Amino acid sequence: MLKIFTLQKLIPMTHLTKSVTNYFRQDANGVPLRRSKRGWMWNQFFLLEEYTGTDLQYVGKLHSDADRGDGSVRYVLNGEGAGTLFKIDEKSGDIHATKRLDREEKAYYILHAKAVNRFTNEALEGESEFIIKIHDINDNEPRFTKDPYMARVPEMSDIGTSVIQVTATDADDATYGNSARVVYSILEGQPYFSVDPDTGLIKTALPGMDREVKENYQVVIQAKDMAGQMGGLSGTTTVSITLSDVNDNPPRFTKTLYEFRVPESTELGSVVGLIRAMDADIGENAEMDYRIIGSDGPGMFDITTNRSTQDGVIVLRKPLDYERKRQYSLRVQVENVHINPRFFSMGPFRDEATIKIIVEDVDEPPVFERASYVMEVKEDAARNTVIGSVSASDPDDKNSLVRYSIDRRTDMDRVFNIHAGNGSVFILRELDREENAWHNISVIATEFNNPRQISRVPVYIRVLDVNDNAPTFATNYETFVCENARANQVIQTVSATDPDEPLGGHRFFFSLAQEAAGKANFSVRDNKDNTAGILTRRNSYNSLQKSIYHVPVVISDGEFPMQSSTNTLTIRVCTCDREGNMKLCNTEALTARAGLSTGALVAILLCVIILLMIVVLFAALRRQRKKEPLIISKEDVRDNVVSYNDEGGGEEDTQAFDIGTLRNPEAIEESKQRRDIVPETFYPPVRRPVLPPTRDNNGDVRDFINQRLQDNDSDPTAPPYDSLATYAYEGNGSVAESLSSLESVTTEGDQDYNYLSEWGPRFKKLADMYGGDDSDRDS
C-alpha cells in the first residue's frame, strides 16, 4: 500500500479517508464475517501560502509497502503543478514546494502519486490521489469597490438619515480565521457623519446642516480586516457628499422702492424695467412668481417672470400720455413657486416692494381727431370744390401749429389738394365715377416748429354717381328675318346697359327713331322690363331686292337729366323653312350668322395651304428614284440568313464550303481577270521545275500536286487571299496498297500479310492477327 506521511500538525479526522476498517458482520446463516485490518491513508495536505524561508518548503512523504529500501522503487508525481510547483524525490518520496504559493491565485492543487519499479517501470501499486490545500494568511488588505464615492443628501436632514453605503472586499479566505473580516470606521468627516462598522452605511450625525452655509463635505472611511484588531490590514476611500437644496429660504427684495423713468412715446408691449428678488436656494426652489397687487393706473402695466433669470419684467399695456398723467405707483409681490410644507415655520415665503414709474415728456407728432376720414363728392363737381376737411393738433404743452399736405404717392394724378393751414380738401381735376368710384389718399400733418414730427391719416373719398351716360345695346346683335315672315312677328329681343348706377335701379325706354318711323319695315315694341321686341311690319321679304335692313332704335333712361342714344340694329334677309329655321342667306349674312370672323377665315385658309404643301412635298419625294442597290434580288438577302450549328471537318474539309456561292452571278464576267495575281496574258504561267524521281519522292504524287497547284493559280473563282488545299491522294506503288476491302478482288485466303511484321511495332497487333500461317489460322 502507498502511504503518505506529513510532519505537519494533526489534521482532523474529517480530512482523512479510512480505506479499510475492521468490521464484524454476520452472513445469512449467522456466521461472523471477518475482514483484515488495514491502516489509515492520508489524502489531504495543508501548506501555508507566502512561504519566506530559504529552504524548499516541505509538503510530505510518499512511501510504499513494497519499498524495501534497496532503491528499486521510484516514486512518480503527476497532476497540477507537478514538476513545476511541487517536486518529489524519486528515491525517498519526499515532496517539496519549489515556489511561494498564493492562495488568492489558487486555493488547492490535485495531484496523483504512484510507485513503480525503477528497472521495469511496472506499477507496484495503484495510483493514489491527494489534495494540497493552501492555508490562508492575512496578506491582503481590504479594498473598496469605488474610490471615490459620490453621494447627495438633502440639507436640513434629521440625524440618522442614510447617505450611502460603502463596501470593501478582502481577498483572504473568509472561512479561515479573521483575515477577511472587515470593520468600517470614519477617519474624517466627524461630527457631521457616522458609519456603521459592520455594514459601511454612512448616516448624518448632525442636525440642521445648511447647504447655504456649507455645501460639500469630504468623508474618509477606513476598512480594516482581522475584525479591526491590531495587526490587521486596512484600506481607505473618500466619499464626496453634497448637500442638495431644499426650499428653506424665502425670496427677498433687495430694495423696498424701485423707480423707473419711461418716455411717453414708449410702444405698447415694451419693457419698462426689471426687478429682482434674491433667494438663497437654487434650481426649482428658487423659482418665483411676480404679480401686481396694487396700482393707481389699473391695466396700465403688467409684470411677468423671466424663468431663466427669475427677474420680474414690467411691461407697458396701455399708451402713456405725459400731459394726462406723469407718474404711476405699483405694489408688487414675489412668492416662491414650489413651497415645502416642512419649512412653513420658516416663512412666509413671499415679499413685497413698491415701484414708482415716472413718465417723461416727448415731443410728439400732431394727432388727428379721427383715425380715418370718409368724404363724398359728386362726379360732376367743379374744380376747387371743397369736399371736406381734416383736423390735427400738437398734443404737447407748447401746442405748435400744424401744416397739412397730401402724400403724392397716394395721389399720383394730383386729383386732390389740401389747404395747408386749415386742412380743407378740394378737387383739382374733373371726376368720373365710372372710371374710379373711390379715391384713397393719405394726409400728412407736420409741426411748424419741428418738421420731423409727422403723422398721417387715411382719407377715403367716394365719388357719387351722376346720370351722365346714355344707355346702349347690351350686346352686338346679329338678327335675320325670313323671306316668308309674317307681319307683327318678333324676330329679335334687345336689352340695354348703362354704366351709371341710379339709386332706384335702371329703367330703360325703347322706341323707333322718328326719321325711320314713316317708311319702316320693322317696328319696336317696349316690353316695360328693360327689354324691347323687334317686329316685322309686312308679310314677306325678298333678299334679291334688299338683303340688309338697318333699324335705328332709340334707348333712353328715366333719370335726371335724361340720357338717350340711337343704336342701329342690322337685320339680314334669309331663306327659311316652314318652321322659321334659316336655310340660306347671302354670303355676308351667312358668315355673320355662323359667327366666322375675318381672323377665323384667314386661319382656315392658312391650314388649307399648309396641307397642300405637305401633299406636294410627299409626291415629290415619291418621284425621286432610289439608288440601285449593289445586290439586285427579288428577295432581301437580310431575310435569308440561315444559321447552322454544324462543325466543319477542319483544314481537310474541302467540300463543306464553296466560296463561289457568295459571289453575284451577274457580276462575274468571263473576260475579267483576277486582281490578286498577274494575268497570264502579260506573263506566261510559271513553269515549275520538275523534280527528278528519287527514292523519297513518288513521281505520280509530284505530278498530282503540280497539277492541283496550276489549277488553283488559274481558277478565277478562287478567294483573293492565301489558302490551304488538302488532298487525300495515296499515290501509286504503295507497299501496303489500299487497306480498303471495297476495292479488293481477292479473297481472304489469297492475301499474304507477312509484310505487316516488317512495318514496326505499330503494326504488331495486325501482324499477329493476320501474319500467321494458314495452318495456324485454320486451327
TrEMBL record:
<dbReference type="InterPro" id="IPR015919">
    <property type="entry name" value="Cadherin-like_sf"/>
</dbReference>
<dbReference type="GO" id="GO:0005509">
    <property type="term" value="F:calcium ion binding"/>
</dbReference>
<dbReference type="GO" id="GO:0005912">
    <property type="term" value="C:adherens junction"/>
</dbReference>
<feature type="transmembrane region" description="Helical">
    <location>
        <begin position="600"/>
        <end position="621"/>
    </location>
</feature>
<keyword id="KW-0479">Metal-binding</keyword>
<dbReference type="GO" id="GO:0002009">
    <property type="term" value="P:morphogenesis of an epithelium"/>
</dbReference>
<keyword id="KW-0165">Cleavage on pair of basic residues</keyword>
<dbReference type="GO" id="GO:0034332">
    <property type="term" value="P:adherens junction organization"/>
</dbReference>
<protein>
    <recommendedName>
        <fullName>Cadherin-10</fullName>
    </recommendedName>
</protein>
<dbReference type="GO" id="GO:0016477">
    <property type="term" value="P:cell migration"/>
</dbReference>
<feature type="domain" description="Cadherin">
    <location>
        <begin position="369"/>
        <end position="473"/>
    </location>
</feature>
<keyword id="KW-0732">Signal</keyword>
<dbReference type="GO" id="GO:0007043">
    <property type="term" value="P:cell-cell junction assembly"/>
</dbReference>
<keyword id="KW-0812">Transmembrane</keyword>
<keyword id="KW-0130">Cell adhesion</keyword>
<keyword id="KW-0106">Calcium</keyword>
<keyword id="KW-1003">Cell membrane</keyword>
<keyword id="KW-0325">Glycoprotein</keyword>
<feature type="domain" description="Cadherin">
    <location>
        <begin position="64"/>
        <end position="144"/>
    </location>
</feature>
<feature type="domain" description="Cadherin">
    <location>
        <begin position="473"/>
        <end position="584"/>
    </location>
</feature>
<dbReference type="Pfam" id="PF01049">
    <property type="entry name" value="CADH_Y-type_LIR"/>
</dbReference>
<dbReference type="InterPro" id="IPR039808">
    <property type="entry name" value="Cadherin"/>
</dbReference>
<feature type="domain" description="Cadherin">
    <location>
        <begin position="145"/>
        <end position="253"/>
    </location>
</feature>
<dbReference type="GO" id="GO:0044331">
    <property type="term" value="P:cell-cell adhesion mediated by cadherin"/>
</dbReference>
<keyword id="KW-0677">Repeat</keyword>
<feature type="domain" description="Cadherin">
    <location>
        <begin position="254"/>
        <end position="368"/>
    </location>
</feature>
<dbReference type="InterPro" id="IPR020894">
    <property type="entry name" value="Cadherin_CS"/>
</dbReference>
<dbReference type="GO" id="GO:0008013">
    <property type="term" value="F:beta-catenin binding"/>
</dbReference>
<dbReference type="GO" id="GO:0045296">
    <property type="term" value="F:cadherin binding"/>
</dbReference>
<dbReference type="InterPro" id="IPR002126">
    <property type="entry name" value="Cadherin-like_dom"/>
</dbReference>
<dbReference type="GO" id="GO:0000902">
    <property type="term" value="P:cell morphogenesis"/>
</dbReference>
<dbReference type="GO" id="GO:0016339">
    <property type="term" value="P:calcium-dependent cell-cell adhesion via plasma membrane cell adhesion molecules"/>
</dbReference>
<dbReference type="InterPro" id="IPR027397">
    <property type="entry name" value="Catenin-bd_sf"/>
</dbReference>
<dbReference type="GO" id="GO:0016342">
    <property type="term" value="C:catenin complex"/>
</dbReference>
<dbReference type="GO" id="GO:0007156">
    <property type="term" value="P:homophilic cell adhesion via plasma membrane adhesion molecules"/>
</dbReference>
<keyword id="KW-1133">Transmembrane helix</keyword>
<comment type="function">
    <text>Cadherins are calcium-dependent cell adhesion proteins. They preferentially interact with themselves in a homophilic manner in connecting cells; cadherins may thus contribute to the sorting of heterogeneous cell types.</text>
</comment>
<dbReference type="Pfam" id="PF00028">
    <property type="entry name" value="Cadherin"/>
</dbReference>
<dbReference type="InterPro" id="IPR000233">
    <property type="entry name" value="Cadherin_Y-type_LIR"/>
</dbReference>
<dbReference type="GO" id="GO:0099560">
    <property type="term" value="P:synaptic membrane adhesion"/>
</dbReference>
<keyword id="KW-0472">Membrane</keyword>
